Amino acid sequence: MEDDNVTVDTRFDEEHPHDQLPTVAEVTGRSIRDQSNNMNRKSWWKGKRFIVCISLFLFVGIGVAIIVGININPTREDRGEEVIAFLNKYSESIIDDENSPQYQAAMWIANIDDAFLSPSSRNTATFLQRYYLAVFAFALDIEGWRWPYQFLSSRDVCDWNVRVLFNGDITRFGVLCNRYQEVESIILPNNNLAGELPDEISYLSKLDFLALSSDRISGTLPDNMQLLTHMSAFFLSGNFLTGTVPSWLSKWTKLDYLNMEGNFFESSIPTELGELSLLKYLDFEGNKLSGELPVELKSLSNLEFLDLGYNRLNGELPSWLDESMTKMTWLRLSNNDFQGSLSESLGKISNLRAIFLDDNQFTGDVTPLNQLTNLEYIFIEDNFFEGDILTFMENSKKLRMIDASDNMIFGSIPEHLMTREELVVLDLHANKLDGSLPSMIPLGLPLEFLSLHENMLNGEIPWASFSNLTSLAHLDLSSNTFTGGMVTDDIGQMDQLTYLFLANNTDLNQGPIPEALNALTKLEELSLKQTMRTGVIPTWIGKLNKLLLLDLDRNDLSGNIPEEIANISSLQFLLLNRNKLDGDVPTKVLSQLSFLKMLLINQNNFSGSALELCMGDNLARNLQTFTADCDNGFTCPCCTLCCTDDDCNDGNLLTAYEPIWENGYTRTYW
């Protein structure tokens, strides 16, 4: 079975030696017959007398047992009360509710478990460990698990695991024990565990590794878990845990990894976490934590990974962050309410490879970031950072992704940002950049995503140089003040482009839709909105048959909608509004676009009727937005909006939504 990079080996493992109990003969080393052959007559008579005495004793004993009603051979049904009486001596949970996981576990051991362990002082630890794990299984709804991992089988609990292929490595998921047969690890990620953690998990005193990520565990962490002082790695990310982050976590002094990302904790960060001096990995991303970063965290000098993104934290970035956490390689504070400027000593975190400060209220100059020469990923978008881009990240040669969009960074884009040998993503949109684009871009760079829209860039687009970016898939130069021709034939070399937005550049030369674009056969989104296009919609547009979005809004196009547009069978969004198109709307052609969700043809000069399109099956299935003019003799009984003036439907609509890094720079919404 495979799922989420996990392959479970469903074959039974070979039996382990400790599963095989020796026979009586193996213990004594010889049989009863061998012994009798060596006896002399006197020994034989003494043995015979002994047998007679034993037989007489057993006869009398059985008689007494019958008289007083003792059952010398109890059945499984009789074990329930015995097991519960035994467990009540060791468990704080009262086992009297038949629906409780404690009762279910006790009855399983008593009446179902083929291991048939007897509750006695000789095997108390083994018996209790089996019971605690059974409670764990019933409390977390084992019947709904994706894989049981041998839980509740007749095997020793240390064999309640299976081999799996996880991220390319062979490992074991389930229960793992140390050499003393004590449970050390429970590893059940993404296994549909549902319910609240029982107190009994706290009695597995040697537990040091707990991985229950991406399950459906709810409720609060039991306070008794603070007894698990051997804990070194704790992964409960992606569950439904609530309450406050417990301060008793500080008692886990051996903790290296703490990951509770993606839950519903609501509290400040406990100051006691600063006592976890061995901690290397701390992740509370995606909770509801509030307040400022406690100064006590500065004691976490071994911390390498810190993710507190998507919470409600506030305050300024503390100075001790760059003074104490010099081993940090990953810092994520995204989507909080932090404010203030960056410390000039930020460069002391010299090992930092990734920094995420996006979607906060940071202000001030970006130049302190220039000291982080080992950075590979920098995300500072959606803040109020300022500064000249000329030297921005000039010394960070390892950068793979830069997103500094939606700030107030100014200046002309330097060539060093466009010629990085490792850079894959460069997003500088919505700043105050001006000047012309770099024109000395070498061939063979790995850049795949370039977004520069909503700036004040000007001059001609250097297509001869840009065409060297042969790996580029996403190019957005819209909403600037570029001049000259829209594109040149050089653009044909950029044959990996799937997204090309040149919209809202009103200073470009007037002219038809450039035929050079027909070489970009991988295009999925094309926006030429408000780019001074004239003439007709070319018939070769049908060659771009992978288009999902075609936006020709607000130009000066004339003529009919070409029939070849039906070749773009994948088209979902067709924006032809605010042009000078005329003639009958080709409803038969448009009805072939079975995936069409949006059709905008308002503020043109169409005639006729949309009745055929309205009666087609396509409308009922997909078409959600249909706008047209209803005051010039054109009838549209199924339009979602009938326009009667020039201000109707006056907006950028879908083309204003750009793919962002959180979604892997692919459009997941419209």
Q: How would you portray this structure in words?
A:
The chain is of the alpha/beta class. Helices cover about 15% and strands about 20% of the residues. It is built from 12 helices and 40 strands. The chain has a 24-stranded mixed β-sheet, with no helix packed on it. It has a 9-stranded parallel β-sheet with strand order 13-15-17-19-21-23-25-27-29, with no helix packed on it. Strands 32-34-36-38 form a 4-stranded parallel β-sheet, with no helix packed on it. Strand 4 (about 170-175) and strand 5 form a beta hairpin. Helix 4 (about 80-85) packs across helix 5 (about 100-110). The protein starts with a strand and ends in a 27-residue tail after the last strand. About 40% of the residues are buried. The model is unreliable at about 10-75 (pLDDT under 50).
SS element count, helices: 12
Shape: globular
Task: Estimate the mean pLDDT confidence.
Answer: 86
Extended strand count: 40
Task: Please give the largest β-sheet.
Answer: 24 strands, mixed
Query: What is the SS-derived class?
Result: alpha/beta
User: What is the rounded distance between the termini?
Assistant: 35 Å
Q: What fraction of residues sit in β-strands?
A: 15-25%
Supply Rg: 36 Å
**Unreliable stretches covering 5 or more consecutive residues:** 9-74
> Percent range for helical residues?
10-25%
Task: Briefly summarize what is shown.
With 670 residues, this protein is an alpha/beta fold. Strand 3 and strand 4 form a beta hairpin.
